[in-house]
Amino acid sequence: MNDTTTSRGARWLRALAGADAQGACVRYADAPLGDETARFITVAPDPANRFPRARDNVVGLEQGWHLAKAVRDAMAEDAASGKRRPIIAIVDVKSQAYGYREEMLGIHLACASAVDAYASARLAGHPVVALIVGPAMSGAFLAHGYQANRIVALDAPGTMVHAMGKEAAARVTRRSVEDLDELGERIVPMSYSMASFAKLGLLDELIEGVDADAPSDAQIARVRDVLAQQVREARADKSGLAHRLQGESAQRTRAASIAVRKRLAQQWDAS
Amino acid sequence: MSTANQIAPGALLRESFIELSARERAAAVLDAGTFRELLGPFDRIESPWLPLQGIVCQADDGAVIARGTIDGQPAVVAAIESAFQGGSIGEVSGSKIAAALELALADCERGKIVRPVILFETGGVRLQEANLGLAVIAEIQSAIVALRAHVPVVGVIAGMVGCFGGMSLAAALCSTLVMTKQGRLGMNGPEVIEQEAGIEELDSSDRRQVWQLIGGEQRTQTGFADALVEDAVDDVRAAVRAAFAQGFPSTHRSANVDATLARLAQIDPESVTPETMRAVFAASPLKLRGENA
């Protein structure tokens, strides 16, 4: 686990699923989790990628479609049998790929294919759990992780969820990075911290005391236990993404989301 | 595409769809006289986050939800208002769209089919509501995928804002996408690409290059959208009706994984252009009324 040439996502894939992962920009492997076999998937740097704007751990054209393939292949293999294997998205994605060729060739559809696959897997009964070990940014997180039944994260430097990178957000909103941090303290959805993300009811567990870059065997075992527990809960819960609005945190910070659904339901059928 | 000398007589008198507000657009898509707005301005569910940042709210938060019928069948339209915060998706506007789709899904699951239409006009996440904007977009996407199993979900990108960010993924999940020549569909706006990747990657001030890249004509020619219509109320209405009459595509675009990976493999990233990619990414086989010949 001291390999510094690779990414956190790739290291956690190896820690949780062994060294025999398939794929290049999207790497995946099947490995034991609890008393069953799960599919672990991550997006990894791919210095030889044909698309120069997508060689880092970002979601580009090939990443999007290969995420969809890694998920759908597992679904297809399980379709005939009664079992629905858990799918674990190991999230360490800096951004979507920004490029001319990416737009031309439909990066929006590539990312949508991954959304479609993860959502379809969840709807088909596969427990889907996202494990955030690094940045979970914007469109890349939508494509890889945000359709999960359950979201957990390491409480470690470098893990964050946001709609836009800090520097870019500062430019667009004409604020300094310091101002953005201050704003995040006051306005929960603006914050980059995992603790704030949890306040929105979107995080199921913040895993403390784990070295995200060089975890010990005991720490890896603890993360594995958390994942197995979340898989069990996800399997028993048929509420889908509505789960995110059911917790205490959501009652407080997402009161508007809940009110919209309630009032819209009341008005749905003409009286 | 039309050139000036091909415009049909009387075309200039036709009512523009683009110039309509979100509310007018929703009414225009529904059968005449059936528009009934849900959670309208008088319900006053506004963004809880904008006032904290000194920004004036709008009573509908920039999303209009309307029930009615389309060709006599129950329908729901979600229309995004570009005049408020650029059509950006905040907690309330996004939850309105997600909730409308979830309610349509619940009806469909009970055997009552509701035809869903989304009128996109958005730059994506509202940055002032950052993580909640992103969260509700994930919920919209989930609802589209679930609903699509029961009834085609029809999207329209008319212009002038276009459809970007996380909502471009939502558009890509739709069963059928209708665009005008003035509509643009992309994940990252041209300015964002220039900012992130440099002007040598894309000059966002080069309007011709941008339209060739992500404009409605290119998107329909290459199968990322299904129907190209004139900016006319009648044509948008006709295309939406044709989409429901046509029903489901054989495979949803976003589920066509192996075929699209095979197409990508044929592309040479070094040399590909919006013109040459048309040899690999062909127009959708759907032929809808209202389409530009």
Sequence-ordered SSE layout with sheet pairings:
The complex is a heterodimer of chains A (271) and B (293).
Chain A: H1 8-17, E1 26-33, E2 36-43, H2 61-79, E3 87-93, H3 100-104, H4 107-123, E4 128-137, H5 138-143, E5 150-154, E6 160-162, H6 166-173, H7 177-186, H8 194-199, E7 205-207, H9 217-236, H10 248-253, H11 255-267
Parallel strand pairs in A: 2-3, 3-4, 4-5, 4-6, 5-7
Antiparallel strand pairs in A: 1-2
Helix pairs in contact in A: 2-4
Chain B: H1 22-29, E1 36-38, E2 63-70, E3 73-80, H2 91-109, E4 115-120, H3 130-147, E5 154-157, H4 166-173, E6 176-180, H5 190-197, H6 207-214, H7 216-221, E7 227-229, H8 233-246, H9 257-266
Parallel strand pairs in B: 3-4, 4-5, 5-6, 6-7
Antiparallel strand pairs in B: 1-2, 2-3
Helix pairs in contact in B: 2-3, 3-4
Structural class of chain A: alpha/beta
Which structural category do the helix and sheet elements of chain B fall into? alpha/beta
CATH fold descriptor of chain B: 2-enoyl-CoA Hydratase, Chain A, domain 1
- Integer average pLDDT of chain B: 93
CATH architecture of the largest domain in chain A: Alpha-Beta Complex
* Helix share bin of chain A: 40-55%
Number of strands of chain A: 7
Biggest interface goes to:
A-B, 79 and 79 residues
Superfamily at the CATH H level of the largest domain in chain A? 2-enoyl-CoA Hydratase, Chain A, domain 1
Low-confidence stretches of chain A: none
Fraction in beta strands of chain A: 15-25%
The biggest sheet of chain B, with number of strands, parallel, antiparallel or mixed sense and barrel status, is: 7 strands, mixed
Number of helices of chain A: 11
Task: Give the beta-strand count of chain B.
Answer: 7
Q: Give the fraction of residues assigned to helices of chain B.
A: 25-40%
Q: In order across it, which strands form the biggest sheet of chain B?
A: 1-2-3-4-5-6-7
CATH homologous group name of chain B:
2-enoyl-CoA Hydratase, Chain A, domain 1
Q: Tell me, what is the CATH class of the largest domain in chain A? A: Alpha Beta
Query: Given the C-alpha coordinates, what overall shape of chain A results?
Result: globular
